[in-house]
Design goal:
Oligomer: single chain
Largest sheet: 8 strands, mixed
Order of helices and strands: EEHEEHEHHEHEHE
Strand content: 25-35%
Number of strands: 8
C-alpha cells in the first residue's frame, strides 16, 4: 500500500486484488481529510486534462455538502455525472435542485453536468453505483459524514471493496 499526503488530502493505492486492506480501511475510517483510493487499472489523472466523476446525490445534508466539496475540487471543464438512486419517481427532482443550488460554481468552472436516475431493483446503493462505473471515469465519489463517528457507511464500504475504479471518499463535517 502506498500513501501520500498532499495538503488536506490523502491517496491510498489498493492491493492488486482490488480489496481494501485492514490498515487502509482504518486510515479511511479515521482520517479527517478527503481520501482517494487509487485503483491500479484506472484512467490516469493527466494534469490539466478534464476529469470525469460519478457521484450519487440524495436529500441528505452530507450528500449536498459532499457535492459542494467535489465541485470545489473540480478543475475547469471537468465532467460530473450526478445520479439519484431510488425506486421513487419523485426523487428525480433532487437532481434539478442540487444543480440549481450549485449553479454559480458549475458555471464559473464550466463543469459539464449529466444527470440520471437509477432504480434500486432490489440492489444496494453501493451495488448500483459500482454497476454504473465505466473505465473512462476517473473516480467514483462517495461522502462520509462525521455523524457516523469513525465507521464508514455501508455504501462507502461496499464501493471501496467492489468498485473497479478509484474511489474518492469526501469527508463531510457538520454540527449535528
Amino acid at each position: 500500500m502506498l500513501r501520500s499526503l498532499v495538503g488536506s488530502e490523502m491517496c491510498i493505492r489498493d492491493r492488486s486484488n482490488g480489496s481494501l486492506g485492514g490498515v487502509a480501511q482504518k486510515i479511511v475510517e479515521g482520517s479527517h481529510c478527503n481520501v482517494l483510493v487509487a485503483k491500479r487499472h484506472n484512467t490516469p489523472f493527466v494534469p490539466g486534462a478534464p476529469r470525469e466523476f460519478l457521484v450519487a446525490v440524495d436529500n441528505s445534508k452530507a450528500s449536498h455538502l459532499g457535492l459542494k466539496q467535489l465541485l470545489a475540487l473540480c478543475n475547469d471543464n471537468d465532467k460530473v455525472q450526478l445520479v439519484v438512486i431510488s425506486d421513487l419517481g419523485a426523487d428525480a427532482q433532487i437532481l434539478d435542485d442540487v444543480i440549481e443550488s450549485n449553479a454559480d460554481e458549475i458555471a464559473k468552472k464550466s463543469i459539464v453536468i449529466t444527470k440520471k436516475r437509477e432504480a434500486l431493483k432490489n440492489r444496494t446503493a453501493g451495488a448500483v453505483l459500482c454497476d454504473l462505473v465505466s473505465h473512462d471515469l476517473h473516480a467514483l465519489v462517495v461522502c462520509s459524514a462525521n455523524s457516523s463517528a469513525k465507521a464508514l457507511g455501508s455504501t462507502t464500504k461496499y464501493c471501496l471493496g467492489h468498485c473497479p475504479i478509484s474511489v474518492l471518499v469526501l469527508k463531510v463535517f457538520f454540527a449535528v
